[in-house]
Amino acid sequence: MAGETTTSLSALLREVWPQDQIYDELAFGMPGYALMRKEFDLAILLHTAVGYGPTQGIANAFPDAKRNKQPSSLAGFKIPPGQIYSLASIDRQAIALSRGKPEAIIGALDRAAQQAILGWKFEASTQLWGNGGGSLSQVVAITNNQITITTPDDMVKIYVGMTLQAATDDGSTPTAPRPGQVLVGAVNAETAGTWQIQCASGNWTDAANIPGLAAADYLFRAGTYGQTLLGVGGWLPAADPTTGDSWCSLDRSKAPLQLAGIRVNATNLTPRQAAMRMVRESLRWSANPTHAFYNPTNLESLMFELQAAGNLIAIKAPPAAINGHVFGEPIDGMKFQGTAGEVKVFGDPRVPTGTVYGLELESWYISGAGDFPVMEAGSGLALYREEWADSFELRVLGDLQVVCLAPGRNTRMTVTA
Question: Is the pTM of this model over 0.85?
């Protein structure tokens, strides 16, 4: 393959990574994304209507029913599109020095594509459970070139080589990030009982990094602050929305339960009791969770308690098909019997620690514009010649958004972290 062009390399890349194989790569390790159904109705503004109150012409006496008749309560979300990019570079000289050996060229393309797909996958899964603001974790302390963050479970979202920004808010109602950025040089999963991130050069608060960084600041992947997907944590916020709330152009404070989900505090309960309380409170408000998603840290406690009671039942669930493609590998989980049917339970490492989502999964879907993600760089190519580097750029991108058709049929539960 002497004198390779972006066209010839793109054709080879599509043979190595056909669209179905990209889909299969996404199923493992991100059960929430895998299990939600996929639709292809993404638009400039996707409008969905939500009813939060029936008609009120109700009485035992006809004159009273007639006099008190009111229309049903309806509200509408105006859902904007979202997008996630994952870029990688392939060195041109490495291709040239392969001297046309297909196995060498394929190896270079395969490695770059796999890493770009994994990057897209991890980011999409993180954003799926976020609140739309993009926060990855929160700073506890700063010591020279290291910062300590709140929980070890947040480490799964932060990588060596990632560029981070900071802000005083979590991005859900964005103001502005702090000036400056930091390149991550090391990630220490646990050091003397703390969880630390080291910058690649200098100290965190150096003028060339983030000079205003302070304890309690939130951390973000650069380029995501206030503009990530409309995650489950945004559709089902931690607290009732108050006057002035604007989620997809709707003030949900007029009916927080119906428009922003059910909230349950179960921090004083055992894991098994908490699971039952989630079902009970959901049913109280006419919701019926079919699936529950836990961070593995919290799921472990529930599994131990169910196992001790002899009620641990393992299951396998097929991922939702994408554009007719059915995944080959099912998702491992467990189930318990609720008062209105079985609840399927899955561990997802991107679910925030201390939070459990009890979802009526049919009320959720991921909306895309055609296949997502795809390897696409425009004009049908999967690779570009980079303008300021001697390399090819590979792009994995997806135009997508998370849609909830009935927030009031879903529950957010706080448990002991």
Answer: yes
